[in-house]
Amino acid sequence: MKYLLLKHYRGGRPDGTFDCPPMDTWKPEEVDAHIQFMRDFAVRLEGTGEFVDGQALAPDGAFVRYDGEGKPPVVDGPFAETKDLIAGWMVIDVDSWERAVELAGQLSAAPGPGGEPIYEWLEVRPFLAMPETVTE
Amino acid sequence: MNEALLRELTPVVIGVLVRRGVDFASAEDAVQEALVSALRTWPSKMPDDAKAWLVTTAWRKYLDQVRSEASRRGREVAGAVEPPAGPAPEADDSLWLYFLCAHPALSPSSAVALTLRAVGGLTTKQIASAYLVPEATMAQRISRAKARIAGEPLDRPGDLATVLRVLYLVFNEGYSGDVDLAAEAIRLTRQLAAQIDEPEVSGLLALMLLHHARRASRVDAAGRLVPLAEQDRSLWDTALIADGVAILQAALSRDRLGEYQAQAAIAALHADAQTAAETDWVQIVEWYDELLRLTGSPVVQLNRAVAIGEADGPRAGLAELATLDPALPRHAAARAYLHERAGDLEQAASLYAEAARVATNAPERDHLTRQAAQLRHQLRS
After folding, report:
1. pLDDT digits over A89-100, tens only?
2. Which of B176, B185, B192, B287 is the most exposed, having the fewest neighbouring CB atoms within 10 Å of its CB?
3. Dmax of chain A from CA atoms?
4. Contact assessment for residue A1 and residue A96, using Cβ atoms and an 8 Å cutoff
């Protein structure tokens, strides 16, 4: 079963005291440690046979939509609110929902300022599969 | 180039290496490498004796592995790795390999991958593409599976239920990628049935054949899922159906019923009906009763409720459904269908919409959405 793990820019410590400051205000070595954590995580999942794909996304970008025949598309952006941002995504292929949650929990512990986990919220979404052959 | 022959020979050649004393994991790696070389070189020069070529190549690959391992450790290669004289044993039974690759200690996805490679003779790349994961991930999945079962005895019969489960999973995965997994599952099950005398193996084979026979009618030209009742039955493969029914009848006559035989019996009753209206739902309900007795599965209970709805009327089906957990997969879809049959179109439409929201695959979701839209449209006009 494949799942998409979506990284939003949303920290959320259990007691609500810590909201992660933007990454560009971190110390360079903290940024490096964070990125290394992500890379190691992907390598580890490749080793367990569960990694499918993953990418980091640049924060700039925009909403775009069709605006009628012959007109250029409407561009709304850059994003005004951090909650609209997706920092990156990873696709995993695992045997159960429980395993997907376990891995998302590990990925959410990526280090931030001071090496502290950032308690980032990850969105976990199952892929729609192909229909099974045997149905009745 | 004869890929089918290559796939058939793969487990045989692994057996040859193992009988020469090579451990399973190394033998399997060596044969996979030989297989990849065959795929590259056979198209331009097919060897006279395919099996001998594979044995020799795999043996060389194995020696390469041993040498590179030894040089990594700075040791000389001992005489033990010289090829022994004489032809390979002729016992080509691969039953032990089925059991080993579907070992209960393995997760379903690793057992499937290992079975397809070692018993099925597919390359890692083909398996990766069928399951839409990178080749490196699939290679790791297989090598971890082999590490997990290292040291398991090879000469003891294993758990047939897990073997059948693995083959069933491969079949159910269907038709994605460039390898036809359904056809591959049928081939492997047929080969297993030839090696072991168990009615349930035949039951599974019959089940696969009977479902495979309907393949051309399951999806329309626009890629839309076509429900069984609406399928164009002239597209069903009558030869496969005849084959499946004959295999099933022989299995049932052994009087050792199991879940695959019961499922195949249900599929056979569908295959037997010239039109959806001629379906013998009363007998289908009886088979669901058997299946429920054998498995106790809530999914079977759900399908049985739908069958009761066909045999005794939608109200009877809905009453049966009301006794089941609404969280069951396809519960809303079953209710929607039975309400539609009962003429409660309003309720059916909203249940179809609900079913679409919880569907776990796209074609089914699209089908349910269309049903909801169609009923709502009908209600408005």
Report:
1. 999 999 999 999
2. B176
3. 58
4. yes
Predicted local distance difference test score (pLDDT) of residue A90 = 96
Q: Is B132 on the interface with A (CB under 8 A)?
A: yes
Q: Which of A46, A53, A131 sits opposite B361 (nearest CB)?
A: A131
Q: Which amino acid is at A32?
A: D
B87-100 confidence digits (pLDDT tens) = 444 455 789 999 99
Q: Enter the DSSP assignment of A127.
A: P
User: CB–CB of B258/B294 below 8 Å?
Assistant: yes
Beta-strand relationship, A120-126 and A63-65: unpaired
In this structure, of A53-57, A85-89, B175-179, B187-191, the range with the lowest mean pLDDT score is: B175-179
Whole-model pTM: value is: 0.90
Above 90 in pLDDT, residue B292? Answer: yes
Largest CA distance in chain B: 86
For residue B168, the chain A residue with the least C-alpha distance is A134
Q: Are B194 and B212 in contact (CB under 8 A)?
A: no
Residues 6+ apart with CB under 8 A from B243: B209
> Inter-chain contact A47–B176, Cβ cutoff 8 Å?
no
Predicted pLDDT at A16: 60
A125 pLDDT above the threshold of 60? yes
Under 8 Å CB-to-CB from B14, ≥6 apart: which residues?
A: B24, B27, B28, B31, B94, B97, B118
Beta bridge partners of residue B354, listed in sequence order = none
Sheet strand arrangement including A2-11: A51-56, A86-93, A2-11, A120-126
CA dihedral defined by A102, A107, A108, A112, rounded to 10 degrees? 150
What is the torsional sign of CA B337, B339, B345, B346? negative
